[in-house]
Structures
1.
Amino acid sequence: MLTAMLGEAWRAMGANRLRTFLTMLGMVIGVGAVVLMLAIGQGAQYAVAQSINSMGSNLFIVLSGFTNAGGVRSGSGNAPTLTVTDAEAITELDGVETAAPVHQGSAQLVYGSSNWNSYVIGTTPAYLDVRSWALVDGSPFTDSDLRASTRVALIGKTAAQNLFGAENPTGKTLRIGQAPFLILGVLAPKGQSLDGRDQDDVLIVPLTTAQRKLFGTPFQGSVRAIMVKAAAPEVMPAVENSMNALLRQRHRIRPGQDDDFNVRNLTAVADSAAETTRIMSLLLGAIASVSLLVGGIGIMNIMLVSVTERTREIGIRMAIGAREKDILTQFLLEAIVISIAGCLIGLLLGIGGAVLTNLLTGTAVIISGSSVIVAFSVAAGVGIFFGYYPARKAARLDPIEALRYQ
Amino acid sequence: MSAATASADAAAVIEVAGLDKAYDTPMGPFPVLKGVSLAIHAGEFVAIMGPSGSGKSTFMNILGCLDRPSGGDYILDGKHVSALDKDQTALLRNRTIGFVFQGFNLLPRMSLEDNVALPLVYCGVDKEERRQRARELLAKVGLGQYAKSLPNRISGGQQQRVAIARALVNRPRLILADEPTGNLDSHTSEEIMALFEELNREGITIVLVTHEPDIAQHAKRQVRFLDGRIVHDAPTHHDLPAGEVQPC
Ligand SMILES: Nc1ncnc2c1ncn2[C@@H]1O[C@H](COP(=O)(O)OP(=O)(O)OP(=O)(O)O)[C@@H](O)[C@H]1O
Ligand SMILES: [Mg+2]
């Protein structure tokens, strides 16, 4: 019986192909949009999660400069207020795992005939721990390099590829200006940071080398920033408070005076970035769902027209013994067949669109089985929901009235 | 089964008593049937006649369980129809009654075979058997070779034969036909009536509405409606040549 009815649904759809196609199109676009938007949304969430992982966990950054109620006020003319000894003092605080002072800038790297402008970070060996950054080759520089301001460096993957191509950079020497730098090791790739920078386009050198031989500094031991890693997420608020207190005391800031530093909880920033992408992907999904809804309303619209057009047919079927539920099933099946067929085509288009988006723009996309299942079952549900009212209308027709309909 | 043995069979297929029907109109209820009582026994062949608007179609629709009376009793095949729910009356329409309409009422997009088989879909007969029974009946009404054609490919008389085949496919006891020859020429009408006579000889009870006395001559009993009441009910006078003086 069900197969006979499916056959009839098929026949009814075939009887008016253009209309069936247009009805389906609503569903196709709806499902396609949902799948595509979910893929893009999940891709974005994945990319953010990746950057957060690469950032390192439980991180603070302490920046030089004044803050007031209006926000950050740290012009480039301002002298750095933080010092290497501040970093050492912070390391001693309860709940702090380690801290690394950072002094950075950009520089033109030269190797043979290759030239590459890269981001140069001057820091201490602790930096790799703070950032949970591993080496894929070679070994890190040490405290003795720091004391002696030796010209050694660790190189990121992007910078290495651009300068050395397929060669192994470890043990090679590159130049910054006229100064030679020996590459001690290669950093593991980290990918994009939250603000979209390529974290692998980097050269890490001892802090003292950066200060004395690369960028200079207004007075010895001053740095622009300190990165701090707390021992656990739970202690972060306490660490933030004790850091503030410690730095105010060390910088002799009287009560009521503004800080000359600025502590930022990077983990909180990361969390809010993750939250933002989550909301963005929800929003994308919600907007796409609206088109699914519109597709569903399209189905309802056409089914209502179809019921009216086929009133006489319904009367004939009732006269030869169709029960209400037979008529209901027939029209419901038609709506479901249309929405499922539209859904399958929509799935293909959505997946195709996602792959194309990835190929054309490089945006991360993720097509998860669950999103496909959700889109599919929602579409089938939409078909049933919006097909039910017209089908019930058909089933409730009075046989005599229906037969009399011209 | 012969006509003689059929009339000896006393079981009433249809029994109506004091049947009323009023349509609701904007000007209040409009009575169409006013206390109709009638019994039709198995094997009978009844022609219902009467002027336009006298309530014949209304009566047939009630007999066919397509419409419900406003008052009175209707017992079909021993069952009080007013006590049945919608599914049960659908079952009666499917199994007990075969309905033939003036306008044939075939489904235009289905092959003749599928049209004939349609009632079987609603009682769960499997595909192979549906096909076989539809073919059998199409052959019986002389249209076996058109099984795969669409209704608009054949003539009106042929379409009515298909409709009769559809009415017969579930082996009903009763055929109700409301002006089955109303859209056909006289020659084709005679062919259709011959088919009804043959079915009646096989034992199927037939009630048909007609305006034409010639057609009514094929029945064994004639009932005449006037203004919602039965005014004449008597066996057909077969000794009179068709087309001469009419009873009543
Ligand atoms: N649904 C309805 N609503 C209101 N009045 C109706 C309805 N159906 C039929 N009637 C009226 O009932 C009366 C009887 O109609 P019916 O169709 O039973 O007549 P009939 O004897 O079959 O006529 P004909 O020979 O023309 O087919 C007519 O006056 C008609 O106008
Ligand atoms: Mg009539």
2.
Amino acid sequence: MMQDDLKKQPSRVDGRAKVTGKATYIAEFRFPELAYGYLVQSTIARGTIRDIETAEAEKQPGVVKILTHKNAAKLANPQADEDFGEKSRPFFALMTDRVLFSGQPVAVVIADTFEQARYAASLVKVSYNEEKPSTDIRDVMDKGFASGRPRPVRGTPDEAFAAADVKVDVEYSIPIEHHNAMEPHATVANWDGERLTVYDKTQGVTGVRNYLATNFGIDREKITVLSPFVGGAFGAALRPTPNTLLAVLAARETKRPVKVVYSRRQLATAHGYRPASIQKIKIGADKAGKLNSIIHEAVHNTSSHEDFSEDLVGISRTLYACPNVRTDAKITRTDLQTPLWMRAPGTVSGAFALESALDELSYKLKIDPLELRLINYAETDPDSGRPFSSKELRECYRQGAEKFGWKDRKPEPRSMRDGRFMVGYGLATGTWGAFLAPSSARVTLKADGTALVESGTTDIGPGTYTTISLIASRQLGLPLEKVTFKLGDSNLPAAPSQGGSITTASVGSAVQECAQIVQKELLSVESKREASPFSGVPFENVEFVDGSVRIKGRPETAMTIGEILSRNGLPEVTATHTTRPDFGERAKYATASHGAQFVEVKVDEDIGIVRVTRVVQATAAGRIINPKGAHSQEMGGVVWGIGMALMEHTEIDHRIGRIMNPNLAGYHVPVNADIGAIETIFVPEEDTIVNPLGAKGLGELGLVGIPAGIANAVYHATGIRVRDLPITPDKLVG
Amino acid sequence: MRPFAFKRAAAPADAAKLVAANKDARFIAGGTNLVDLMKEGIDRPNELVDISRLSLSVVRSLAGGGVSIGALARNTDTANHPLVKKDFPMLSQAILSGASPQIRNMATNGGNLMQRTRCSYFYDLGTPCNKRQPGSGCGAKDGLSRYSAIFGWSDSCVAVHPSDMCVALAALDAVVNVQSPDGRERKIKFTDFHRLPLNSPEKDNALNHGDLITSIDIPKNNFAANSYYLKIRDRSSYAFALVSVAAAVELDKGVIKQARIALGGVAHKPWRASEAERFLVGKKAEPGVFQQAAELTLRGAKPLSENKYKIKLAERAIARALRRAANV
Ligand SMILES: Cc1cc2nc3c(=O)[nH]c(=O)nc-3n(C[C@H](O)[C@H](O)[C@H](O)COP(=O)(O)OP(=O)(O)OC[C@H]3O[C@@H](n4cnc5c(N)ncnc54)[C@H](O)[C@@H]3O)c2cc1C
């Protein structure tokens, strides 16, 4: 989007609080008499704890208590997490002597100050019965087992591949990657008699409340979970982490409020990660470029105790029209923390394979990569056979190519130069399901002409505070600054966790519908008032504009919301509402966002340095509600994709099963100097089926095609096809 | 917390004495390395002697040319000093390619020489490291060695020195001025300042406990017009070098009169390529010659399982840096 257009758009409603430090993050909350918990983590990846010596640590000044598996009170009702496989065994810190991964919390030291706790933690001595860990996916890829629902084979892919004119048969790998959000995982827990209040870094306050209620055996009503601001999460806070459990446990044991914060170094094992994956992909086509077979087999790692699986292969079933398709997804066990969803989980990994392989095919066919995608454009969803509720991907290709200047691309690899740099153009396609979940909200109109909107969702950074406020302000006809949106509190009407790019669509629909209910309620009260100009006027003939209510076409009837309330002797009107999406109608369609990504790289070939100099990101994601936020998300997707393509890599010493770069100096994400020009295009897309707002998720979409787009551009520039991410200098100097 | 005493030295000799008196005392200058090491429990001093207010932060010309940079001059101020920029632009380049502006604003020149390795085993208390805990073993040698040394390592340590500034100083024949606790002052050639790990990798350099760096002298040379610092890393900024090269030539009508080459990211100390330097003298400054010098330098390299790429990368980096230096 052009900078000038964006300038006129509303900015983040929470921006000022964030840049002035007024936004309070979890580790900043305190209660009187607060104690600090510091974790001791295992140094082995597999085995049992032989002994833990805490005597020396206990003697240190300020130490209140040291909890280990030997003295920690057992959970009332420990529940496995059904999202992680039927056979999953729960892992709860300090509930077992078994060590499942290096970095597992084995003790928590509680002291009067953070420094005292940290020092005493360094004196806790743990001995182990060590067993040999297995953490390298290469060692166990053959021991993979099926994950997820088996999916039907379409046509006869093996025969079709054998008979194809032109074939690609390749393998891609992606290492483990970590979210590395700025804010570390943290919890502050306080028991007040039977009542429990927890500040927790999370993407879902309801989920954390239910987790605590179940495992500790407490009534949900007695628990309040709060998460007003989240300093980035990207999936890392979709499931309660040990800090949550340990802070609550420690607060109960010490009868003091307790704060537990992961240090940066500890954080790499606090939560899961994007799993390591190996993907084999075969694509067959006829000479004209028509695909006739896709066989996509993926294996990724999980832990020894849970079956985490994400969908790498789904994209190969839906992105292109192809009569013969087989996908096969497996997971395999490693002695690591259970993986977890990380921005565009599964899909970005699968897209790296599929979209790279398609690029490889284009060179074999000598067909332009864009042309190849158009030849195989899926007009309807090839997997379900259903029509798309909307799909403006073709327009993304067209507008993106034009803005980027794709026609200037010379077809041969190594054919474009800029001084000593080899220049490469690459492209890829992205897609992300447009999901929707039931959600609740409350809207209150007040006599002072303001509105309070409430929903128990979270804002992990994408701008939910702003987007939802905008939806309410537009529906209610109130200026943005008259709307306050409250979130991040488990006592508010429940909303799903913020993940899967569902929040704007799901919570936004709830807020929009709820606002309408309140408007109707206001009108119904007013129209019953004697001599009201609104008597007998149907809702459709009334409009809410500039804080006033008026009959359409009759501006003289305008009354402010405040006036109406006071004339009717009401302090406010309020409604709470839960959406019941019409999944029946939706189910007749395939619903997804799409995008096309065009990438220019300049490669200093001699020394293996790749610069992503230019990216055009064209997006079709239904109605764009918050243009600045959407622009920012799509730029963020590019930045993330540059990291994933060129640098991100969790390094593990497989001899000891230990992550060796658990800090921001060793785990590289892009810095400003790595980022070139990024342009975003939002292609208009109307959709009356996907949800009442017509908006689709775009937070993850913007990442999906980028790593493949970059790898494809690097190939075009250098003739070197890197199939193992990340594309670091060593892989190009060979 | 781990308690420590904090003292402020009144004069350099004083500082040296204070630290020498206690084997667990350390100087603290900018604190950008030491404080991190203390937080991670890697260095555990019980006494800090603050030297940051000593008047050792001058950058001045030396009699007979050259420049002296104070041990406590900040990295930023050193890199931007007109004398340094004019006569030793490669040193400016090297400093500015390191860390981030915020860190360079705090970091001192003395601290830069003394910074510890970034080897991930050194930083992880859960793994063996002879440098951190003598006798515990080397985790990196048969482990993750992508960042490790290809020259001069021993079975006990394969760590590399992380500094950029020091690579330029090694190439520029700098001399380190040291104040000893016994009141004497001595000079150490920069190339003798850092050491190879041998069997005592816990010792990074030639200083004894309590020795205080007061300044670094860089003698006059004729390299200013033809020098270049090239740093290759995993991202554009704020990353340590995979390989770096400080290259300088003195030219007379296209013929090389003198050359200097030092490498970073390849050894426990900045690695001078003396043989290649000698090879270049009297040769024409042209790409083929530079390529030969590069190959000569890497001849003795001994890679580990994950860092073979450094050989080719270093070779190309040397050739590139020399070409950039000579403008050919
Ligand atoms: C995230 C990060 C990235 C970095 N990236 C780079 C990089 O890319 N390239 C690079 O070159 N550097 C890099 N650095 C390192 C940085 O240059 C050093 O931390 C800095 O130079 C140290 O200087 P200081 O004054 O802060 O030292 P301090 O931390 O104060 O001291 C470090 C050590 O030196 C000793 N010491 C200090 N002054 C003297 C003296 N005068 N005499 C004797 N001993 C002394 C201290 O006792 C201590 O042991 C990075 C640092 C960080 C934190």
3.
Amino acid sequence: MTAIRPAVEAKGVSRIFQGAGQDAVKALDNVSVSIRENEFFTLLGPSGCGKTTLLRLIAGFDYPTDGEILLHGQDIAPLPPFKRPVNTVFQSYALFPHMTVAENIGFGLKMLGKPKAEIAARVDAMLKLVHMQEQRNRRTSQISGGQQQRVALARALAPQPKVLLLDEPLSALDYKLRKEMQIELKRLQHETGITFIFVTHDQEEALTMSDRIAVMSSGNILQVGTPWDVYDRPAERFVADFIGETNFLTGTIESAGNGHARIVLSSGARICATAAKDFQLGSMATLMVRPEHARLVKGTGDLAGTIETIVYFGTDTHIHVRLDGGEAFIVRQQNSRCANCGFERGDKVGIQIGDDAAQLLKD
Amino acid sequence: MASAKEIADKAERDDIQSRWLLSTPALLIVFLAALGPLLIVVVYSFLTPGNYGDVKWQFSTNAWVSVLLERDVFDDTLSLAGAHLSIFWRSVSLSAMTTILTLIFGFPTAYFIATRPEHRRDIWLFLITIPFWTNLLIRTFAMQEVLRNDGIVNWVLQALGITDHPVQLMYTNFAVLAGMVYVFLPLMVLPLYASMEKIDFRLVEAGYDLYATRLQVLRRIIIPLVTPGIVAGSILVFIPSLGAYVTPRVLGGGTNLMIGNLIELQFGQGRNWPLGAALSIALMTIVMVALLFYVRNTTRSDGSHG
Ligand SMILES: Nc1ncnc2c1ncn2[C@@H]1O[C@H](COP(=O)(O)OP(=O)(O)O)[C@@H](O)[C@H]1O
Ligand SMILES: [Mg+2]
């Protein structure tokens, strides 16, 4: 894996915005990340965590306060944006209102001074790729949001950049169209072999589309990994909380070693959890359990509690349990043919936690 | 019973009726204040001049003939009125130059203001409008101070050793041009700013992203988007330039007249009101033709602003 040459590499990149007063905003704080060639790489994080700032630094619209950015091993600091082999799909699309769909798509090639025939052929190919042949002579104000999104995509792909930056390109679309475009984008990335750096605040979108995800929070990258990594082996509490639904339980570490630790909860229940690093005996720690990794049982389980609410979701059911220690805990059960599988509100139940399903987190 | 269509039709009729009613005051003002005097001017241009100004109610086309032609004193033959033509030509060319120069100076100024942080723009706009606070005449005399033989420009030129005797700047076309550019610059900057302010500057970034250099971004993105402002500013500068009176009078002296001065002359010393009236109408016609031509050209060459 390490032999693959990175397409984009950030080394200790910081960007500090000097505010109007004394307060400076650290939009990026010493960020280092390495993005591989032909990879669908996603920057995931809540709004304001610095995703757009990082993209703008790569595109060249803004410059880092500190650190350097390499493109295929080459420092790109001296290159103005119009000399970087990188194209952007803007969050707001930023289509040129005074040009037609075809003129928008051909703009980059025209600026590169390509011959007319080549531009025309490439624009045709792009229109076909995004299924917009019929709208080629429309103004950008005369097409729908989804179509504008596709034009923005085609415009950025037309000059065949080495790296494509996409800043929340699907966030303005409604649910169904977004699902369609997710598949479309994945297909385009596959067909073109271009490195995609995709920004989103939607964890589900990140999980379904990415080869790897970088989870960001207030100017830092907390974890980089495959969707499985960040979902199933979150490095810290923020990641576990931001991606998917999670149960957190706090207790005291009773014994530790061999990558495992035993925690005593306030109710006296003992749980064995995997521990990525060594934790100090007797200290407080938080563990997480995904709702689908726990199971309700009629008798005694690892935990005990009372059912508070049952929420039916079609494919599965969420059962909210109040543990004897007072904590809330959610169990997700896949629905089989029985409706509640014999559980009712107010039932005293046990919760069985799967092997290695509980995980100790660093806060 | 009224059908849905009848009800809708009636609503539309009522709507049209109330719209007419509401616009009556505006229409009255237009008719009385604009068309009325214009009609009087047209009528006057077909009358005979009185001995001490004013007009005699006697139909004559002499005024119109002498807009462009002059009658030889001895043999009554008509020839082109060279003096009038050169004044027309000076007016049109100086006004066109003024428009172009204010555009050249005003564009970067407006761009500068539009790219400032939002809370600072008001201050810059305010600074741009300061000249409006002073009387036009005073501003023009200030310009005279700058341009006269022992004025600032000549003082600097001599201090730098570029010339050893004062350069004659006053009472030249250059002085008139400089004065008009100075006076009309804000009228160009403000509409330019108004349309630049509306530009989504992410479009500029998108341009850079797609390999456009600074010059290409200016030509392909900014200028097309600012075209409405360029048109409005040019009109706002060109029209009053063409009719300028004070500036050519003060800075151009008696030799560099423009149409405005010529018209004034007819109503004053010339005592030829019909000719003054005919010249006014001619000026208006030039303006309208120029406007029509300009607007059609700018909107066609850039048909995107439909
Ligand atoms: N030009 C700027 N001036 C000042 N602060 C900025 C500027 N751009 C971004 N920021 C701040 O930097 C932080 C990160 O912004 P951004 O990268 O846009 O977040 P995201 O795209 O993840 O929502 C935010 O707190 C934002 O307010
Ligand atoms: Mg953003």
4.
Amino acid sequence: MESLTPDKIPRSQQAISVLWPSFITAIIASGVFFSAFNPRDLVPFNLDIDISPLAAYSIGFFLFWLLASLSSFGTLYFTISNCRFLNNQR
Amino acid sequence: MAQKENTVEPVLYEAHKKIYPREVSGYFTRLRVLSLVTLLGIYYVTPLLQWDGRQAILFDLPARKFYLFGLTLWPQDFIYLAALLILAGLALFFFTALLGRVWCGYACPQTVWTEAYLWMERKIEGKRGQRMKLDKAPTSAAKIRTKTLKHVVWIAFSLWTGFTFVAYFTPIDELAGELLNLSLGPWETFWILFYSFATYGNAGFMREQVCKYMCPYARFQSAMFDSDTLIVAYHPERGEPRGSRRRSVEPAAVGLGDCIDCNVCVQVCPTGIDIRDGLQYECIACSACIDACDEIMDKMSYPRGLVRYTTENSALGKRQHLLRPRIIVYATILLLLCGILVTHISQRVALDLDVIRDRNTLYRETNDGLIENVYTLKILNMDSQAHVYKLWVEGIDGVKLVSDRPEIEVEAGSVYQMVVRLQADEFNLEARSVTVRFHLQAKDGNHLKTVTDARFVGPGKS
Ligand code: SF4
Ligand code: SF4
């Protein structure tokens, strides 16, 4: 039987393999980052915004998640396109 | 689209079939329920505990403090949390090598909440057969009523779970007050809903799929297993050839083994596998099939243990080793790390001193011809009560500490900032830059002391 390649994995599971590892990564990254930096000292681009600490931590977390997702997505995308490419060559 | 997926994913990514685990009873089931209920209880009760007039365990995000009963940890103490996580990871390795996937079957939050949701489902929709029938039945008022009731109960439980989760980060009495006044902050609301939704989805729908497709631990368990690890296994020599027979028939007489092929072990399995196919990575070692099969064995008056806890070595009739290199190494590292962590925490000084030299001027000469350096001190009192501190300096003969604050009193859990000047005779400076040592000690506690080094800059010897 033909062996399974990542491009045959259902969409839902592809989504999980992007979002889930990056979720864990984002937790670790936020933990390390916010232990070192107090969001109160980090006013981005000198904007004078007043947000609650919880909002700052949450936004930080989502930025990390987004960033890590982009990276996971890149890995998945290249794996899939390489699989397709190699399959076509056979 | 769905059609196509079904045809190409038979091995690794099976099209999801809903699993209806059959109810079990027995020794291991009782043990398991005890463990699951205890863990659930701990989760929901912990935020309610009080200590010294505050929540006993609280990650106070705005104040950037972590309260753990009598201990208050600051971001500076992050290392302890990291160490604790490493410790937890090592403990997982150790227990997995020894006992296999006990974590999965008895303690993993995924299992804990799945079982809780399954229990609610059972109470509302009935036993396995009834649940299957209900799902197959055409839509009717009764079906809608039952299903709605189930989801309402599930959602209520999820919301309570989400609320409790946020209560680990926001004091629970504040949170409850805000909830009652309908004045919850937007982010609190968001996280309660987020966590509730995750619980509802994971425990109500995803269930064993989380273990199969999302859990990293399940994937590398084989690296932690060896031939002496405890596993749940079927005894094929005894059971095969399987086949149905009447109770009165002696298996040997009809050329059969002890397995009556009743499929009960498959029906109880929360991951929907057949333990008789051998050790599979989907098996979360929940031991449901052990209890289920034992019950059948009892009914047939065969000895129990056709499906049982065993090890690969013992199943093969080989010698078993409890103490093997892997276990000893894990245990040693574990104990060592535990020891280091405990000593560190017990010797942790709830005081921190930061010294920043004024960089604008290298040094200044005073009217009396002394060389003067200016420093900003940041004193962090991490203790749970206020203290008065004494401060002194050494490193230069006759160095004088000048400060406009005679008394340094710092409130509990706060930072105190002050400017001090050091004055020294040029004659006593051995180089252009010498180390000075700031000592800070609580007047009412000798163990509350800390030392920080800084540079003192002068004109240098010419
Ligand atoms: S095979 Fe047995 S022990 Fe493994 S998950 Fe299924 S019921 Fe639990
Ligand atoms: S429960 Fe026991 S007897 Fe029944 S099919 Fe499973 S192994 Fe065989």
